[in-house]
Design goal:
This protein is mainly alpha-helical and about 160 residues long. The protein is rod-shaped and about 115 Å long.
Length: about 160
Amino acid sequence: MTNKETVEEKNEKFIENLINKKQSRSVNEIHDKSLSIGDKLADKIAAGAGSWPFIITFLLIIAIWITFNVSQMFIHFDNYPFILLNLALSCIAALQAPIIMMSQNRQEERDRIRNQQDFETNVKAEILIEEILKYTKKIEQVERKQNEILEYLKNK
């Protein structure tokens, strides 16, 4: 024989490792260990920017900005068509979009880890169910033989 493992041996090792491996793992803990400070900051910014308090605050700031620049009581630092406001909004959008995309990429990575864990759990459950079915068939065979022996003994 050679030192190379056969496919059956590799499958047996994989199955044995899978059965002995604890499947209950927190996907969030696994994923959070790989995050850098920048990743965590981007997630917090994305979470904040996608909240109602942020949207309401932002709308209030825009309303105040427009009110100050249209009202006769204040100095107009950004007259109507509000070029400075448009510039500020464009800059915020230009920075916010990549941050949200980074956060979505990390969510996708978390989903990939979760999917892998679900796959391993499903394979393990399938293997264990197959083993249970094998043992059930063996028990049925033994029970049949015992019934045959009992019938034979009754007839004697």
